Amino acid sequence: MLVLIVLSSGAMLAWPLIRGAGGGTLTADAAVHLINRERAVLVDLRDPEEYAAGHMIGAKNVPLAQLEEKLASTVKNKNVPLLLVCENGSRAQRAVAAAKKLGYEQAQAVSGGLKAWKAANLPVEKA
Question: Residues 8-25: pLDDT tens digits?
Fold first, then answer.
C-alpha cells in the first residue's frame, strides 16, 4: 500500500512537467512566475495594430510572419525563458517550434493568450 502511495504521489508531481514538456504551454500565472523569478522575455506575436490596442506590460512585438527574421535581433539571449503570446494562444503555439528551431530551447506559449491574461486580471498596457 505504501508503494502505491509513493508511486501515485510521484506521478502527480511529475504530471505538470510531462504536460508542459509535450505542449510547450503554460498558464498566465506560471508566466508571471517565470517573468518575476527567471526574467523571462514576453514576445507578442500579434500584428502591430493589435499590439497597440493592448498588450502585456513589457512585451516585445514581433509579428508571427516576421518571427524568423526578427526574433534574434529582438531577444538576443537564447538562454532565458521565452514566452510567446497572441490573442488566444493559437499563433503562439505554432511559433514555439519555430523559436526552438532558432535556438530558443526554453520557448513556451502562454495558454489562452492575452484573453487568459486579462481573465486572470493581470496588467495590460496600450502603446
Answer: 666 566 544 444 444 468
